[in-house]
Design goal:
- With 325 residues, this protein is of the alpha/beta class.
- It is built from eight helices and nine strands.
- 32% of the residues lie in helices and 13% in strands.
- Strands 1, 2, 3, 4, 5, 6, 7, 8 and 9 form a nine-stranded mixed beta sheet that branches.
- It starts with 41 loop residues before the first helix and ends in a 10-residue tail after the last helix.
- Residues 5-30 have low confidence and may be disordered.
- This is Peptidase family M28.
């Protein structure tokens, strides 16, 4: 997640919207969820996350040799799972960074002749902040929670769609670079997509899901009141999957991750899902954000519980997720 200024919330006033008064557990369900027999494998979640947050990648700072290794790893994953490149290759070169840097972008074409013209974006950023400049024993900011955890979940969802062919709409799978530099990867990509008249339905961006919250819902969504996405996800899962987190509104996290670039460009429901609640993780932008402190069963459960929702989003005859007026 792009740097948060916890002690300076005043910086968000310029873009602050109306504060929600919704209670944390107020989201309700009103229809029967779809059933998913596919099982997300815990060992695959673990293996993927372990490598992506390993010391070998040296904190995955954009423009470094470490993130280049991460890019190759993600390309190989998409290729292995028969997910095609969206552009000529999986690499989408950033237009706003002074050294070579790449988003990794794949596409899973929809199965419906008409609905496949619409896109659902599943995304997370694979860059992090790299090496500490201080002289200390551990200099590697591994970024396991931020955001190798989100990349791992998106990759697992992409594998699910690739294997099941259960998406009538097309799925754009995006792993962003440059998020920690100011949302550069998403800003660069949306400029290209806009020129193509990209037909976006909605974006689910996954951000910091490595550890669970002690709440009566699984995750929260940024910009809760901007759309009905939280309500629809809960309807689709049949569970209290998404709740309202007051701290999210206070710190205006909607504006702090790659969903915001897409929202600015397309004006569609583009939001981030997270389980980092400012109470459950002490290692934000810290060298101790490592694989060993990640809760693999939780990440697996998060991904599994989202599958009915992302499936329904990809198959519903009409665009049920809409912006609130």
């Amino acid at each position: 997640m792009r740097k948060l200024y916890f002690l300076l919330p005043v910086i968000f006033l310029a873009c602050k919207s109306g504060t929600s008064t919704t209670k944390e557990n107020e989201v309700k369900t009103d229809s029967k969820p779809i059933e998913i027999s596919y099982k997300v494998k815990e060992n695959e979640i673990s293996d993927f996350l372990k490598y992506l947050s390993s010391d070998e990648l040296e904190g995955r700072e954009t423009g470094t040799k470490g993130i280049e290794k991460a890019a190759v790893f993600l390309e190989d994953f998409l290729k292995k799972n028969k997910i095609k490149p969206y552009f000529k290759t999986y690499r989408d070169t950033l237009t706003n960074f002074n050294t070579p840097a790449f988003n990794i972008v794949g596409v899973i074409e929809g199965t419906d002749p008409q609905l496949k013209k619409e896109f659902v974006v599943l995304s997370a950023h694979y860059d992090h902040i790299g090496l500490e400049k201080k002289d200390q024993a551990d200099k590697i900011n591994n970024g396991a929670n931020d955001d190798a955890s989100g990349v791992t979940s998106v990759a697992a969802m992409a594998k699910y769609f690739s294997e099941t062919k259960s998406n009538k709409r097309s799925i754009l799978v995006v792993f962003f670079a440059g998020e920690e530099k100011g949302l550069l990867g998403s800003k660069s990509l949306v400029e290209k997509l806009k020129k193509q008249n990209f037909n976006l339905y909605t974006q689910l961006n996954i951000e910091m899901i490595g550890v669970p919250m002690k709440r009566d819902y699984l995750a929260y969504i940024t910009g809760f009141d901007k759309s009905n996405m939280a309500q629809k996800i809960n309807e689709y899962t049949g569970k209290n999957t998404i709740g309202f987190l007051p701290k999210e509104a206070e710190y205006q996290l909607f504006y702090r991750s790659d969903n915001y670039s897409f929202f600015q460009a397309f004006g569609k429901p583009c939001q981030s899902l997270s389980t980092f609640d400012f109470e459950n993780f002490d290692f934000y932008h810290h060298v101790s954000d490592e694989f060993k402190v990640m809760d693999i069963p939780h990440i697996t459960r998060f991904t599994q519980e989202l599958l009915p929702a992302v499936t329904k989003i990809a198959v519903s005859p009409t665009q049920e997720i809409t912006m609130n007026k």
